[in-house]
Design a protein that fits this description.
The chain is α/β, with parallel strands linked by helices and about 450 residues long. Helix content is about 40%, strand content about 15%.
Length: about 450
């Protein structure tokens, strides 16, 4: 045991920490006797009182046991820490990862965001950093009310908005509230984002899969079901890329009004439309029947963990109460920075820049597929951050994913997002976080994998 007399920690803190760590690591086994306070003090060249204080502290914590006239020993209550291999990420890493929901991380506007962070800390009152409204900072909710009304055509109300950590938390809160209202089943798009299914099942809701075709959700099958709520991605369906047609939008709203149903709108990447102006939010048509959830994940970066919910008035209190119980409210500094970022027009400018970048990357993907994988088909709308690539019947989708992974290419298969097995094979190729040369090389390697399993 060595003590650093010039270190930042006091000698007593170093001694206490060293003994504690030796016990945790098993170097001092259970029941082992420690030197006397006098003996250890002489060995280390410190005062006996310093050693006594360290022993007393560790005895108070339960690491040591002391008895009058007996040696100080390692307490039998201590369990040595299990040595495990170095931690590794739960996310697989690939040189060419066609993640369908990842934006261009290298294009995150760091300097502009730092400016907003500084402004938030400099200009915000002290009480803004305390325990505030669990719905989120009023300043951000006001800024988002204006932004969503202007950009997404939403009927936004500051008082009925709740800031959350993203779609997943927002939907989880909604499922819990619906379950509390006695709702037992919820309809999901089929195919649809598998996370929708996992969250709803975790809340104890029964899943009712509703097929999706080229016009989006087949509303007539929803009407025939017993579902009291439905989750939709109307502006850009995941994973097919379909846009919900005007007639089905009207029919969906009519169903919700007539049957007092709830529509949960996942508005994940709607602002990225490349052939026309983005379709407005469904929430604007029926704010009392649509629970709208959006986030900064595709607009800026998923790591920001900021999202927002526009709730019908009859759900607003329950949602905000559930948020308060779950975590007391989302972190404040990021909220204030996002408010500044929106008010200064930086978010609008960033989305415009990204729209042009993603359009180029999408075109690069389509051209690479035409060159290297002519058997594949694409039918997604010119929107979003991914393309659904259809493959000929008979292709073993799991085998293709495995062969691609062996070549350094990561992607998701269409089967992951289906409720029932079968159907034509396909893969989702996200282009948002890959450069154009990387897209070209990734598709070439995918074509090699395809040839190996064909």
């Amino acid at each position: 045991m060595e003590l650093d007399r010039g270190g930042e920690l006091s000698l007593g803190e170093q001694l206490t920490g060293s003994i504690r760590e030796a016990i945790r690591a098993g170097r001092l086994p259970l029941g082992a006797a420690l030197p006397s306070t006098r003996g250890l003090a002489e060995e280390l060249g410190v005062s006996r009182g310093l050693v006594s204080e360290a022993y007393s502290q560790l005895a108070a914590e339960g690491y040591l046991s002391t008895r009058q006239g007996a040696p100080v020993r390692v307490s039998a209550a201590v369990r040595a820490a299990t040595r495990r291999p170095p931690a590794r990420s739960l996310q697989e890493r690939f040189p060419y990862h066609f993640h369908p929901g990842l934006p261009a991380l290298e294009s995150f506007p760091r300097e502009r965001w730092v400016r907003s962070l500084r402004a938030a800390l400099r200009e915000s009152p002290l009480d803004a950093l305390g325990y505030g409204d669990p719905r989120g900072q009023p300043e951000l909710r006001e800024a988002l009310t204006d932004y969503l009304g202007r950009v997404r055509g939403a009927a936004a109300d500051t008082e009925q908005m709740t800031i959350c950590t993203g779609f997943m938390q927002g939907f989880s809160l909604a499922c819990g509230v619906l379950r509390g209202h006695g709702v037992e089943s919820i309809a999901l798009e089929d195919p649809g984002w598998h996370i929708h299914r996992l969250i709803a099942e975790q809340a104890g809701l029964r899943i009712v899969p509703i097929p999706v075709d080229a016009q989006g959700l087949r509303v007539e099958e929803l009407i025939a079901s017993d579902a009291a709520a439905v989750v939709v991605t109307p502006a850009h369906q995941f994973p097919t890329g379909a846009i919900l047609s005007p007639s089905r939008r009207a029919a969906l709203v009519e169903w919700a009004e007539r049957d007092e149903g709830l529509i949960v709108e996942d508005d994940f990447d709607a602002e990225y439309r490349y052939d026309r102006v983005a379709v407005g939010a469904l929430q604007g048509l029926a704010p009392e029947r649509v629970l709208y959830i959006g986030s900064a994940s595709k607009r800026l970066t998923p790591g920001m963990r900021l999202g927002w919910m526009l709730t019908p008035s009859w759900l607003a209190w329950q949602i905000s109460a559930a948020k308060a119980v779950q975590d007391g409210g989302s972190e404040v500094v990021g909220q204030l920075a996002l408010r500044d970022f929106i008010v200064r027009g930086e978010l609008d400018r960033h989305v415009r820049r990204m729209r042009a970048l993603y359009q180029r990357r999408r075109e690069a993907l389509l051209e690479a597929l035409a060159r290297h994988l002519p058997d594949a088909s694409t039918s997604s709308a010119a929107a979003g951050l991914f393309e659904l690539v259809g493959l000929p019947d008979g292709i073993d989708e799991p085998a293709l994913l495995k062969a691609a992974a062996a070549r350094g290419v990561g992607m998701e298969g269409l089967a992951l997002h289906r409720f029932t097995p079968g159907g034509s094979p396909g893969v989702l190729l996200g282009f948002g976080n890959l450069s154009e040369p990387a897209i070209e090389q990734g598709v070439r390697l995918l074509a090699d994998a395809y040839a190996a399993v064909r």
